[in-house]
Structures are given as C-alpha cells and as structure tokens.
C-alpha cells in the first residue's frame, strides 16, 4: 500500500513538473511574440519618396525584390540585412532609390524581422541570380556584425559591404580584399563612436567612411525613432537620398579602381 502511495506521489510530482515546464515555455513564446510584434513599422506612403526612374517591387515568402524597370548595365546586386525588429517595408525607400540608379536590390525576409535568424540569406540570393557578377551586402545597425560574419566566410562571392550606422567588433575582415563603405549620421546616438574607432581595425584596408550631416541611425529606414537614437535635423527622404548617392559613388569608384 505504501509503495503504491509513493509511486502515485512520484507520478503526480512528475506531472506538476511537466505542467510547469509547458507553462514556462508558453510564457517565453508569448513574450517573444509580443517582442517581435511590437517592432518598428513603416510610417510613410511610398509616394512620399520621389524617384528619378521607375522601379518594380515584388515579394515572395522569403525575399523582397526591388528592381529597375529598364535593363541596367551595372550588373550589381545589393542584399539588405535590416536592423533588429525593423519591418522589411521600412527599407523600401532606400531599396527603391538605389534601384532607380540601376541596382538590383534584394532583402531576404526573416521571422520577426530578426536577421540573426537568417545569416545565410545572402547565399540564397546569390545562388538564385547567378548572372549578377558583383554583390554587396548593405547592413543596418546591429546587422553589420551579422553581415561581417557572413562576409568572412564568403569572400569569393562578395565584392564588398556597406555599413549603415554600425560596425563589426567580432569579425576581422582586414586580411581580405573586400570593399567597405561605412556611413553614419552626425546625430546618431545608437552608433558608439568609441567602439567604432576600435572596430575600424577589423575593416578591410582602404575602407571608405562617410558622415551624413544631420542624419541619425533611424533615417536609414522609414520608421519611428529607434531606441537610444536622437532626432535628425534632416527628414527621412533627404537621408535616404544622401545615403543612396554615397553608395552609388562608392560602387562606381570601386569599379574604376579595378
């Protein structure tokens, strides 16, 4: 009788532990869903961003494509890694501005807009479009670290990278023949200048550094102001146009150096 009672208590105890684990997992998953659902969303209609040339926008389950309508002679692809929890639509303005200049722009989508869950997203795009001969990754904020990690393992398939309001402290790209453009806004307070100076030692040789006067970290995407950032003194349209101009000049100069 006592053995049966003891075994019964053990079974009850095991069920209580199991129920507790299930409840804990559900709470964690619910909290995570709330976290990603409360991310940064686009705030302007696309008509707000005037383009010099028409572009096409399309989306599949795992990829956003923004392409020039007319065939481009640049044959350069740009792969976007967005900032953490920043909705994919927030990057349409910059992608559209660059597509209007003749670039083929792609953004691999991720669950919860968390690029860290899809570090190899660039590989999917590069394999999908083998006719494009030059590839750059354009990464925003925290995703610069992710882009550097990918680039370090795929130096032969990339021409270079563009950091927008970010840098890489963990991944040393200095030994590799990659092009790098680093852009940040003069009013960017997400961007840590002291860490940036330290991170420069990890950048490829002859990297290019640019500052957008009056710009901030938020302005590379069309969304409400990011946590810890400072209000810009230029509007989102101006920052997007200036960013696209800098990227275009950088890529053209890189071609001329070959």
Summary tags:
36% helix, 258 residues
Sum this structure up briefly.
By secondary structure, this protein is α/β, with parallel strands linked by helices. It is built from six helices and eight strands, in the order H-E-E-E-H-E-H-E-H-E-E-H-E-H.
Explain what this protein looks like in three dimensions.
The structure is a single chain. The chain is an alpha/beta fold and 258 residues long. It contains six helices and eight strands; from the N terminus they run H-E-E-E-H-E-H-E-H-E-E-H-E-H. It has helices spanning 2-37, 92-99, 121-128, 143-153, 193-199, 236-257, and strands spanning 55-59, 63-68, 76-81, 104-108, 134-140, 160-164, 179-185, 208-212. It has an eight-stranded mixed sheet, sandwiched between helices.
Give the strand order of the largest sheet, numbering strands 1, 2, ... along the chain. 1-2-4-3-5-6-7-8
Order of helices and strands: HEEEHEHEHEEHEH
Cα-based radius of gyration, to the nearest Å: 22 Å
Oligomeric category: single chain
Major pleated sheet: 8 strands, mixed
| Percent of sequence in beta strands | 15-25%
Given the C-alpha coordinates, what overall shape results? Answer: globular
Spans of at least 5 consecutive residues with low confidence: 22-38
Number of helices: 6
The averaged pLDDT comes out at 87
Summing up helix and strand content along with how strands pair, one would put the structural category as alpha/beta
């Amino acid at each position: 009788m006592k053995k049966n009672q003891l075994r019964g208590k053990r079974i009850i105890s095991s069920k209580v532990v199991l129920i507790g684990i299930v409840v804990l997992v559900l709470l964690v998953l619910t909290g995570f869903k709330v976290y990603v659902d409360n991310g940064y969303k686009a705030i302007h209609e696309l008509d707000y961003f005037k383009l010099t040339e028409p572009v096409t926008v399309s989306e599949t389950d795992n990829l956003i494509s923004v392409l020039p309508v007319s065939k481009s002679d640049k044959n350069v692809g740009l792969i976007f890694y967005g900032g953490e929890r920043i909705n994919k639509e927030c990057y349409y303005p910059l992608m559209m501005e660059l597509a209007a200049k003749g670039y083929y722009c792609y953004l691999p989508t991720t669950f919860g807009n968390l690029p860290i869950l899809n570090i190899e997203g660039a590989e999917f795009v590069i394999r999908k479009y083998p006719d494009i001969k030059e590839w750059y990754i354009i990464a925003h904020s925290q995703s610069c670290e992710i882009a550097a990690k990918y680039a370090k393992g795929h130096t032969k398939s990339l021409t270079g990278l563009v950091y927008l309001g970010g840098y890489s402290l963990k991944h040393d790209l200095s030994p590799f023949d990659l092009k790098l453009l680093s852009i940040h806004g003069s009013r960017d307070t997400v961007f840590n200048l002291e860490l940036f100076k330290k991170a420069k030692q990890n950048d490829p040789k002859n990297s290019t550094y640019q500052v957008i006067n009056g710009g901030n970290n938020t302005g590379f995407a069309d969304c409400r102001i990011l946590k810890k950032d400072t209000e810009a003194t230029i509007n989102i349209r101006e920052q997007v146009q200036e960013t696209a101009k800098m990227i275009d000049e950088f890529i053209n100069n890189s071609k001329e150096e070959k």
